[in-house]
Amino acid sequence: MRPQVLLIFQTRFEECTAMLKGIAHFERNHQLWVGFLDDEARAESDPKWLRSKKWHGVISRHTTPALVRACAELKLPLVDLNDTEPFPGVPKIRPDNIGIGHLGAEHFIERGYQHFGFAGFDNNAWSRERRDGFAEALRLAGRKCDVLDVNYPGDFTPFWDAEQISALVSWLKRLSKPVGIMACNDMRAQQIISAAHASEILVPEEVAVLGANNETIRCELAYPPLSSVIPNAFQSGYHAAETLAALMTKRPPESYDLRIEALGVATRPSTDVLAIADRSMATALSYIRQKSCTGITVDEVVKNAYASRSQLEKKFRKHLGRSPQAEIRRVQVAKIKQLLLETDYPLKRIAEMTGFEHVEYMSVVFKRLTGDSPGAFRRSTQSKQT
Fold first, then answer.
1. CATH second-level architecture of 4-94+233-260?
2. Average model confidence (pLDDT) for the chain?
3. Long-range contacts of 215-224 (CB under 8 A, 24+ apart)
């Protein structure tokens, strides 16, 4: 009979699903055991749950002292995927949080930012590590960082959220702009965006916001959609399975505190802009980002930016190297690409959604800017995904 392995994960979290895929990939290639998924993580709080079956090993994303004690009593090998301080003698696999902070700083430096902020949770070691990595990378580049850390109560409630947004409003108002702000995670980043909206501060034109963990649904629900550092949860899961396999054959693990390097940054509209201090430029870019797919004209952009057309044309050439009309087309084409990749909408529907009255004209513009027709672009991307 193949060994029985208990997997303790709350699968409502996207990160947990990615870790489980890594575990499954390792097991599929080695066929060492049979996994049982505790997808509500009941075993973390109920040690008796472990005694319900004869297990041969445990991998947990929700490791508690009670779980560690129970595994020790039962002499069960345990691998811990929780991003907290290690338990003595228990191999831990977690993200390289210093590296995550470095990626955040580099993301903003590449976009020309001179002012930076970090918002995190002072009572969580993983947040402090991300903060320190962010500040270290900036320091190495000769720049400074304004920090706002608070204690996270461990429970996200509407009352606490409103309280935090109020504090963030005061902080954002006093920061020099444009500013690039990294948050310790995507939830904190969403609060920053909400505070910016409450202060009538433009995102990303005045305050660019970057999260971490790349919780896709949370990032897409934010407005504008949130950029985020992508941890390699799949690789964490794979190494956890590899480590447990070693423990189950009485071999020592590779490391008792293994850090997994992040994949990079998922760039979305919350940081997809260059740092430009000019208010009329920032306003114009914000208007184009919001309205380009409604068929706007340059005259409408000029009117909303409170600048003359000639002034705005010169500013766009200076800061972006292209005209306002070219920027409108760039944003439209980016949206067309997204729709071609993520939907099966017909071209006529995509033309309507991106501000083109005639699908033929949309196709001409798309091919001129990308070199491919919309249909060819969709076919080539689909073939790469299969």
1. 3-Layer(aba) Sandwich (3.40)
2. 91
3. 215/14, 215/15, 215/186, 216/14, 217/14, 218/186, 218/187, 218/190, 219/186, 219/266, 219/268, 220/268, 221/190, 222/189, 222/190, 222/193, 222/270, 223/193, 223/197, 224/193, 224/268, 224/269, 224/270, 224/289
Residue 38 CB partners (closer than 8 Å, separation 6+): 6, 7, 8, 9, 49
Rounded-to-integer distance, Cα 280 and Cα 44, Å? 54
- Dihedral angle over CA of 88, 92, 98, 99, nearest 10: 160
Contacts 24+ apart (CB under 8 A), 306-310: 306/280, 307/280
Instruction: Tell me which DSSP letter residue 222 carries.
Output: S
pLDDT in tens, 272-306: 877 777 888 888 888 898 899 998 999 999 998 88
Q: Is the pTM of this model over 0.90?
A: no
Contact in structure between 301 and 224 (CB atoms under 8 Å): no
Extract the tokens encoding 29.
């290639």
pLDDT digits (tens, 9 = 90+) for 59-70: 999 999 989 999
> Which residues make up the CATH 1.10.10.60 domain(s) of the chain?
279-385
CATH 3.40.50.2300 domain range(s) in the chain: 4-94+233-260, 97-231
**CATH node for 97-231:** 3.40.50.2300
Asked if the peptide bond before residue 224 counts as cis, ω within 30 degrees of 0, the response is yes
Q: Are strands 264-266 and 257-260 parallel, antiparallel or unpaired?
A: unpaired
Residue 381 or residue 379, greater confidence: 379
3-state secondary structure of 274: coil
CA distance 70 to 59: 13
Q: Report domain 279-385's class.
A: mainly alpha
Any idea how long the chain is? Answer: 386
> What's the CA gap between 266 and 273, in Å, rounded?
14
- Report the alpha-carbon distance of residue 366 to residue 94 in Å, rounded: 43
Encoded amino acid at 289, one letter: R
